[in-house]
Amino acid sequence: MDVGCSTLDVGHSGQSPAPPPPPLHQLTTLLAEHFNTPGELALDWHRERPPALTDTACFQILAHPAALAPQMLVRIRIQPNTTDNSTGGAPPPTDITLVLRAQLWRDGWLLPTPATRGDPVYLPALTLKRYDALRDRDAVPAEPDADLIYARAVPAGRLLTWRDVIRRPLVRRGQLIEIAANEGPLSITLRGIALEDAGRGEIVRVRNPESRKEFTALVTAESAARVTF
Question: How far is CA 104 from CA 17, 36, 131, 194, 202, in A?
């Protein structure tokens, strides 16, 4: 269970303790670790911060959102860090639901000049642009080894999306491709017929020409794929 607890960091030099990280910073770290999604997660309060969630509060996340979204509900339990004077013990924990706004910043490709359908995407000619992946969900992330072609004519000044480009097919439908099959330390190579076009890192359906059985494999290179049992 994810836990956030602000503590004062007192250095060996005897200097004043550093201020604890605010709860929003802790929540950002915990949610980024939980979802493990590429990009820089940024959170803000959708409403005012609950008074019970002080800068020195210890809390644990009881219920994560199902997925990262522009607006999310996060259920937390705040552990008391004071003593109840009437009983001498700690007061009960407080459960609250936080309403958060979220952004997930990534680098994308901005097209400086118009492009024609079927042309290869020349990455050095593109400009990097930061975008919020929770809102521009179809934007193409800027990957330096991306091998893409334009799926349609694209005007200049546009943030590229997966409607504009496709991965360049490394295997094509009807092509005989080489497949590396791995099972533990054992590895064999066989051939199969690709049943569809697919680019690097995509899953392709393949048919064994002898048994006629179909299976899926991960495209790794030109006319090559890999399957793991």
Answer: 32, 12, 8, 36, 24
- Same domain? For 50 and 74 the reply is yes
Same domain, 150 and 193: no
Same domain, 76 and 89: yes
pLDDT mean values, one per 10 residues, the chain (229 residues): 51 48 90 95 92 88 96 93 58 91 97 95 95 96 92 96 94 94 85 93 93 93 88
pLDDT of 13 = 45
Q: Are 33 and 26 in contact (CB under 8 A)?
A: no
Pairwise CA distance, residues 156 & 8, whole Å: 51
Nearest to 108 by CA among 135, 81, 69: 135
Q: How many domains does the chain have?
A: 3
* Location of structure tokens 């860090």: 81
Indicate whether 114 and 86 sit together in one domain.
Answer: no
Q: What is the pLDDT of residue 59?
A: 92
Strand ranges, E, within the chain = 3-5, 40-45, 58-63, 71-79, 94-111, 127-132, 148-150, 158-159, 165-167, 169-171, 176-183, 186-194, 198-199, 203-207, 214-221, 224-228
Q: Which domain holds residue 94?
A: 3-104
Q: How far apart are CA 170 and CA 148, in angstroms?
A: 11
